DNA sequence: CTGAAAGCGCTTACAG
DNA sequence: CTGAAAGCGCTTACAG
């Protein structure tokens, strides 16, 4: 067995042309039963497998999807990665991973890199892209989907959960439970996700004729969220805190407990995402569930649709609603039952 | 701007040959200052970027490293992924991700897939490979490194932490603190990692003239670990439990607390990995730190070494020792101070 | 159904 | 330093 077997070598051994070999390995191409047999036999004996890169070059389809991701400490993203990878793998695609640097410039460079690999599509999770890059991708005919992030006037498909509705649900639940000093540690205000959750939250509060006692930007960071919690404690005496995502909510709970406060009794905490850890005993976090499966499905089908039909590049936004998962980190409204779920 | 710009188009606009364009974009190739200028200008105007796939075909180097990973719920792996990706990105390589199915057959198929992409190397994290596949990879000249997993007589490079030493440290610490009914919920016994941690642990116990009161296989699963905890509680009355990894240790702690047991006082719990969450207030887990940075470095350099020098494929095992991180989930030995760290 | 041939977009000896 | 040409390993009209 030598290093690399080519279709030409298989052809020779099978006594057919190289084209015939190619056809046998091309789904949908026609070859007689006899040819197929001869070729398969020779291929097996030689250990032949088609070179995907060569195939990509001529077909113009690499079957690679570029994924830009950051913030892997937040359990949400590994879960997304896993589900996305599984879904794509089933369709014969694979994920080329690019971990994102923090600057916008850095991201652009990374995406350029990605495009150099002739990816068939790009999924950008929790990062923003410059309009310059938007243009390049569009002109290169590469579909881009923004995952869990929106961008004004972007030409991309955007898949998010319905953050506004989610924020509203939280406010309503807190109000129903009779909280009167409600604070918010928001997701990073530079992200649509952070802004929208806050927006829905405030809107519902407003409609109920009240308002939050304080809103601090948690920057999606554990450390910042902890500092915010202390500030809330010393300056505002909140009886409930809505936190922009679960990752920060865990930090808030840790801080509250360290200060001797009983979470769910003295102060209610609600998060957003419903990462697996939220259900673990140590936190038992009431939170809005991001419908990851449906978000992944929407992402994959947007990608496939564009790949199959490059002309119709309809920019659009899918905001999928997710339920409030009630656990014990927040006081429940009187007479509340699980029936709603 | 059209969809895809080729070097030939740049050449035409710059008034040079296509080879000249290629040279300008090939590090180390020679071109006159004048040529470089003309080409760069034309390339910028056209928005040209070399096609990595075409380059890969002729050079035989795809600059893609295949990563096979499973078990992404365990925070350890996302961290590894992130660090590995960053390190590789700096060297101009990128990771093509394959999420592993559970069966050995499945894994083999996945690796075959990987090889079809002409990856320059493969990193298999927490999975085992068949010897058949080992042979294929070796014959294709593709370096494989097993990450956090060893395999008897494997021809691969293996990078792990020193699991035996780690297990020993845990036993010693528990003994020093005066525990007398020490139990073990081990990592999956089908994995070298699980077996070795247990082995070191038992060896140290043995040398001290004692033995663990029970050893149960936690299978790296949260649910199984919880069931094991209950069984330990009802049948063995342990005063300490060494758990095969942090991910399971969290489940053990949750279960203990649900039974009203004070962790760190009534029963000590020690994990293995030191994932970020281990330091969070809710768990405050005493654990062995896996030296991820050094493990990633070792992985990357093994890969690069083989890529630069395909002939020398020295199979070897690197087991890097990590420290015991003392927190509050386990009772400390009398007079214990942090000095050791 | 099948083979010969062109071509995907590059790199790299080979001559100059 | 530079250009013409071969070749990387395939797919896909084009004729038969």
TrEMBL record, chains A, B:
**Which residue range or ranges hold the HTH lacI-type domain?**
5-59
The protein's matches in InterPro entries, at most eight in alphabetical order, are given as:
HTH_LacI (IPR000843), LacI/GalR-like_sensor (IPR046335), Lambda_DNA-bd_dom_sf (IPR010982), Peripla_BP_I (IPR028082)
Q: What is the lineage of its organism?
A: Bacteria, Pseudomonadati, Pseudomonadota, Alphaproteobacteria, Rhodobacterales
GO function term, MF aspect, one: transcription cis-regulatory region binding
Q: What is this protein called?
A: HTH-type transcriptional regulator DegA
> Does Repressor show up as a keyword for this record?
yes
State the UniProt keywords alphabetically: DNA-binding, Repressor, Transcription, Transcription regulation
The protein's matches in Gene3D superfamilies, at most eight in alphabetical order, are given as: 3.40.50.2300, lambda repressor-like DNA-binding domains
Protein's organism: Pelagimonas phthalicica
Which is a Pfam family this sequence falls into? Peripla_BP_3
């Amino acid at each position: 067995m030598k290093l690399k077997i080519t279709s030409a070598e298989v052809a020779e051994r099978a006594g057919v042309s190289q084209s015939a070999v190619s056809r046998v390995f091309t789904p949908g191409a026609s070859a007689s039963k006899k040819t197929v047999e001869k070729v398969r036999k020779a291929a097996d004996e030689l250990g032949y497998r088609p070179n995907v890169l060569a195939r990509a070059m001529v077909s113009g389809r690499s079957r690679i999807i570029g994924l830009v991701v950051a913030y892997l400490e937040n359990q949400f993203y590994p879960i997304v990665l896993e589900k996305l990878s599984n879904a794509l793998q089933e369709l014969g695609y694979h994920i080329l991973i690019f971990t994102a640097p923090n600057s916008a410039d850095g991201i652009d460079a990374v995406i350029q890199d990605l495009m150099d690999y002739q990816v068939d599509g790009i999924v950008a999770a929790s990062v923003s892209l410059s309009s310059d890059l938007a243009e390049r991708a569009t002109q290169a005919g590469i579909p881009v989907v923004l995952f869990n992030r929106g961008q004004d006037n972007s030409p991309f498909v955007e898949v998010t959960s319905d953050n506004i509705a989610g924020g509203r649900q939280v406010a309503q639940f807190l109000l129903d439970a009779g909280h009167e000093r409600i604070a918010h540690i928001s997701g990073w205000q530079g992200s649509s996700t952070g802004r929208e959750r806050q927006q829905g939250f405030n809107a519902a509060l407003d409609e109920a004729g009240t308002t939050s006692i304080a809103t601090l930007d948690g920057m999606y960071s554990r450390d910042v969220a902890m500092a915010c919690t202390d500030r809330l404690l010393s300056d505002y005496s909140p009886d409930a805190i809505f936190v922009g995502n679960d990752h920060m909510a865990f930090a808030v709970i840790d801080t509250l407990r360290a200060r001797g406060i009983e979470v769910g009794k003295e102060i209610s905490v609600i998060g957003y995402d419903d990462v697996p850890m939220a259900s673990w005993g140590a936190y038992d976090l009431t939170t809005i569930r991001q419908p990851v499966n449906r978000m992944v499905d929407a992402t994959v089908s947007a990608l496939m649709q564009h790949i199959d039909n490059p002309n119709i590049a309809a920019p659009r936004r899918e905001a999928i609603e997710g339920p409030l998962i009630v656990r014990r980190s927040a006081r429940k409204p009187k007479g509340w039952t699980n029936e709603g779920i």
